[in-house]
Amino acid sequence: MQRSSLRHGFSGYKKAGSLCVSAILLGGLLVGCSQSDRASNGTGTLLITANGEDFVRQGFTDKDGWQISFDHLYITLADITASQVEPPFDITKTLNPTAQVKVPEPITVDLAAGDENADPVTVASVEPAPAGRYTALGWQVITPESGPAAGYPLVMIGTATKAEETIAFQIQLADELKFQCGDFVGEERKGILEQDETADVEATFHFDHFFGDGEAPADDEINTGALGFEPLAALATDGELTIDSEGLKSQLSAEDYEAIQALLPSLGHVGEGHCEVIN
User: For residue 93, is it left (φ>0), alpha (ψ between -120 and 50) or beta?
Assistant: First the structure.
């Protein structure tokens, strides 16, 4: 199972002093790059993927001993933008891409889709995309107007079991966030697109930050900083919990609700790479 530790964590197309003056809309996908980049590097296919990791696909034990299994975990992404930046993008600096692709339409994905060995969810396939190394990825988490998660940017549906108690939960969070991330960090490199080839960039979501990890020591920062399921279990009635942000604010302690607000910005990553939340 993939593990992670808790971390605290647009249009200026320029290269060699020349502006990118070409941006075209292809099948709902905005593709922009300099003419010199296209001529020298060619194009390929860039896949945008979203990954909830094994915690979401396979289930896990939280810091309080609750075994959590997700039936669905809906998140709605918008303004997904993959950028080539030289040198590789530093999230503390201004984004000045040499080439960029954008998925402008909101898309709701289910991070729990598929079996326990499923690949990350493909959000979009961009073709043609300028070849090169994509070292920055940004997106917004927004409220969808329709679909299975209508009205909420993030919806978690599943069960939590501890000892003889099982709670069916549906947690609907109303917080909208905007993430800007740098280069993917992981066992394999992502985002390097060769001419006429396919590469992927990944938006990664670390839900162990929210619930903690029962396989890590209790004093590990992944657990000391997490909410855990126990405060949510206390709100269940007859083995069921359906609650939204307004209900959490009114029923949780002020400390626990503030913990949720502090934890949500830490969900977004690129592999283990850091992201910043932009106001």
Answer: beta
